[in-house]
Design brief:
Order of helices and strands: HH
């Protein structure tokens, strides 16, 4: 799964419970609810992406040091 797909899945996993909760309280979903859910998904996806970049940096640095030894 590439990063784009992971971001989409993460966004859906975050917004689905929010939409479900909004429906269960019998209050109408407002544009503000949708806007906030989208913002939360974007922030979470950004954090996830940061973590993935850090892991890739660590792996690349490890490979660099391995190559340097040879």
């Amino acid at each position: 799964m590439n990063i784009c797909q992971k971001l989409i899945v993460t966004s859906l996993l975050i917004t689905s419970p929010l939409a479900s909760r909004a429906q269960s309280t019998n209050s109408p979903t407002t544009a503000e609810n949708v806007k906030q859910a989208g913002k939360n998904a974007a922030v979470t996806a950004g954090h996830y992406t940061e973590e993935q970049v850090k892991e890739l940096d660590k792996a690349a640095e490890k490979q660099f040091h391995e190559l340097r030894k040879n």
